[in-house]
């Protein structure tokens, strides 16, 4: 189970890296370009839109899914679940459907915890509405929209 959550943490960190790079590019090299203008016209969701484009282009979601599936036997051995159950959970998590979004102003924090991945400390925050999870590395906060099929697994994030 620990490998599963370490892999999941790695994907979250990958999202952060992609978002950070895109943010820097939009505020420096791409400033004033048609791409930056288009993103600005999208309003408050521009950052999320840009992050999702970068996330999809990076292939991180597919890499995470492959990594989880390649460690299904290890996860099963560590958790006592059958390998079939682990595969079902991976299917239900549906990483390809997770996306960067804007956290609603009325979101209520349910809890948070600290974890680290490859030497980077991250705060993961969950909300009473399980369709949102925020990660905060390097002073940046990124909120992810959790699809309904994955929401039952949000509570497992604290095992990172």
The gyration radius over C-alpha positions equals: 16 Å
Biggest sheet strand order reads 1-5-4-3-2
The major pleated sheet works out as: 5 strands, antiparallel
* Number of distinct helices: 6
Oligomer: single chain
Mean pLDDT over the residues: 74
Q: What does this molecule look like?
A:
This protein is of the alpha+beta class and 160 residues long. It has one domain. 48% of the residues lie in helices and 19% in strands. It is built from six helices and five strands, in the order ααααααβββββ. It has helices at residues 2-27, 34-41, 46-58, 60-70, 72-79, 83-93; strands at residues 99-101, 109-117, 120-127, 132-137, 142-145. Strands 1-5-4-3-2 form a five-stranded antiparallel β-sheet. Strand 4 (132-137) and strand 5 (142-145) form a beta hairpin. Helix 2 crosses helix 3 (46-58) and helix 5 (72-79) packs across helix 6. The model is unreliable at 40-44 (pLDDT under 50).
Outline the fold blueprint.
Elements: H1 2-27, H2 34-41, H3 46-58, H4 60-70, H5 72-79, H6 83-93, E1 99-101, E2 109-117, E3 120-127, E4 132-137, E5 142-145
Antiparallel strand pairs: 1-5, 2-3, 3-4, 4-5
Core attributes:
160 residues, alpha+beta, five-stranded antiparallel sheet, globular, transmembrane
């Amino acid at each position: 189970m620990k490998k599963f959550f370490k892999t999941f943490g790695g994907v979250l960190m990958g999202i952060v890296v992609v978002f950070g790079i895109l943010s820097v590019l939009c505020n420096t090299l791409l400033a004033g370009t048609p791409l930056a203008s288009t993103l600005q016209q999208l309003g408050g969701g521009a950052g999320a839109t840009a992050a999702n484009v970068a996330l999809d282009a990076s292939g991180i979601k597919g890499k995470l899914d492959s990594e989880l599936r390649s460690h299904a036997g290890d996860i099963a051995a560590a958790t006592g679940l059958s390998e079939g159950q682990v595969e079902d959970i991976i299917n239900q998590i549906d990483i390809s459907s997770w996306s960067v979004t804007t956290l609603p102003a009325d979101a209520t924090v349910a809890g948070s915890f600290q974890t680290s991945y490859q030497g980077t400390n991250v705060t993961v925050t969950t909300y009473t509405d399980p369709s949102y999870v925020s990660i905060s590395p390097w002073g940046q906060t990124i909120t992810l929209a959790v699809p309904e099929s994955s929401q039952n697994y949000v509570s497992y994030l604290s095992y990172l």
